[in-house]
Automatic annotation (TrEMBL), chain A:
Protein name: PAS fold-containing protein
InterPro entries linked: PAS-like_dom_sf
Source organism of the structure: Pedobacter quisquiliarum
Domain of life: Bacteria
TrEMBL record, chain B:
Origin: domain of life: Bacteria
SUPFAM superfamilies: alpha/beta-Hydrolases
Molecular functions (GO terms): hydrolase activity
Protein name: Hydrolase
Domain spans labelled AB hydrolase-1: 24-195
């Protein structure tokens, strides 16, 4: 049994646990942390004894902490699996932040106990997923732009074509009306009436196309 | 009044009205939270004031379907919501108390319709978060981008919290309490847009046009703003005064409600 006693000692477990543990005051002042936490920052307990938890975060994470996590810890008293970035003198790292807040008798938070789980692989997957999401959004935007461009092109063509077709059409209608004033045979007059009806139908169709593409005549 | 309009705005912004007074105190929450953020402050005023709380669209229990990309692409859109709430409830001589970005939303609302408001309170305000020439806003553009990335990477966390709420976790009593589980829940897509609108806003010129008395309450060690910004606001805003608190952080109404209440009372009582 003696060979195990060292490893199940609470102090040993606390310090050697494969997660960083830290207790801090609401203003960020660190009260206690385990060895794993200090090792994340390549520091000893003495070197980090006066550190402020909030100042170990990158600026973006510190902002997120102040704006989103602080209210949550005050109101809900816990927060789970929040991804935060920490800065060290050599490199930044990401960790999942789980915490529980404890309040005094007046309901004021006096201490936050948190543990940090370093995430390296998950962060890579997440970066891939976010990249894929952005690429999908970009593709969607590109597709929308192509559709918009095509629509605009179609509108221009429709505008040009409608004007090009309507001009000779208007000429034909004018000529038909002149033809009607000329004395011709009954058969000729019937043919002119048929010609006029067809021309008017065609003119109506062109107007309809113009109207549907919402182009000014 | 149009009843349909009234109910739609009350639902849109999850408006809550309570208290025993006639003088209106309207509280606007900051970025990343909802109306629950005021729960430690409002009890001190319930006896003497009419309290109006609400959620901005996208936050808390507001109507997410009411989110309009164009309307909410500027803080003016949110200010219009504040005015519509005032009109719907027929509020007059309102004292608007805004935290963080709500300070500037309140400022815009007052400038749009000064006749509706009596006083304005800023808690942890900043008229511009980004640094500018001769203006220490405190935030660089790349830091804003990093914040947006952090919000992105916590998208799943938000979803799982909401999923827990929706599924009614019986093994997690804290989630069974609908109120607790919805604390500060903001749709992540809307939150990102709101963050961009908030942090890219510049309301320095609007401060100079304020026509009602205003109070700035500012904490120590606030990552988002500071005493220098508070002094800047005091310098360019007609009728502004500053109260500095000894407490730290960006949310004194949560971390130091007594300090906030004590700072508010003399200002509210001042003729």
């Amino acid at each position: 049994m003696d060979q195990f006693s060292k490893y199940i000692d609470p102090e040993f477990i606390f310090n050697e646990a494969p997660i960083g543990f830290v207790s801090f005051k609401p203003d960020g002042e660190i009260i206690k942390a385990n060895c794993t936490f200090y090792s994340f920052f390549d520091k000893t307990e003495r070197e980090l004894s006066s550190a402020n938890f909030l100042k170990l975060l990158t600026k973006g994470s510190a902002l997120y902490f102040q704006m989103v996590l602080n209210p949550l810890l005050n109101l809900r008293e816990y927060t789970n699996e929040i991804s935060l970035s920490f800065s060290t003198p050599t490199e930044n790292f990401d960790a999942l932040f789980n915490a529980k807040a404890y309040k005094d008798e007046h309901g004021k938070v006096i201490v936050v106990n948190a543990y940090l789980l370093k995430i390296i692989d998950r962060k890579k997957y997440e970066a891939e997923l976010l990249l894929a999401k952005r690429m999908a959004e970009d593709s969607l935007n590109s597709a929308k732009k192509i559709i918009d461009d095509n629509n605009e092109q179609f509108m221009k063509i429709a505008l040009n074509q409608s004007h090009m077709i309507r001009r000779p059409m208007a000429n034909m209608l004018g000529l038909i009306s002149i033809l009607k004033d000329i004395q011709i045979s009954e058969d000729g007059a019937d043919l002119i009436r048929l010609l006029e009806t067809s021309a008017e139908e065609l003119d109506t169709q062109i107007k309809e196309i113009v109207s549907q593409t919402q182009l000014p005549l | 009044m149009n009843t349909a309009l009234d109910s739609s705005i009350v639902l849109r912004n999850n408006v809550k009205v309570f208290g025993h007074g006639t003088q209106v105190l309207m509280f606007g929450h900051g970025f990343g939270c909802d109306l629950n953020t005021w729960r430690l402050v409002t009890p001190a005023f319930e006896q003497d004031y009419k309290i109006v709380l609400f959620d901005y669209v996208g936050a808390g229990n507001s109507d997410l379907n009411a989110y309009d990309n164009e309307r909410y692409s500027t803080l003016e859109g949110y200010a219009k919501d504040v005015l519509e709430i005032c009109e719907t409830l027929n509020l007059k001589d309102v004292i608007f108390i805004g935290h963080s970005v709500s300070s500037m939303i309140g400022l815009l609302a007052v400038n749009m319709s000064p006749e509706k408001f009596g006083k304005l309170v800023f808690i942890g305000p900043s008229p511009r978060y980004l640094n500018d020439v001769n203006y220490p806003g405190g935030l660089e553009r790349d830091e804003l981008e990093e914040l947006l990335e952090i919000m992105d990477s916590n998208y799943l966390g938000w979803s799982s919290t909401m999923a827990g709420h929706i599924m009614g976790n019986h093994d997690r009593p804290e989630l069974a309490d609908g109120l607790a589980s919805s604390f500060c829940s903001t749709n992540p897509e809307i939150a990102k847009k709101f963050a961009r609108v908030t942090f890219l806003s510049d309301n320095r010129a609007d401060l100079q046009n304020l026509k009602v008395p205003s109070l700035t309450i500012q904490c120590q060690e606030d990552f988002l703003t500071n005493e220098v910004i508070a002094a800047y606001i005091e310098g360019i805003t007609p009728g502004n005064q500053v109260t500095l608190l000894n407490s730290t952080g960006h949310c004194p109404h949560l971390s130091d409600p007594t300090g906030v209440i004590n700072a508010l009372k003399p200002f509210l009582n001042k003729a």
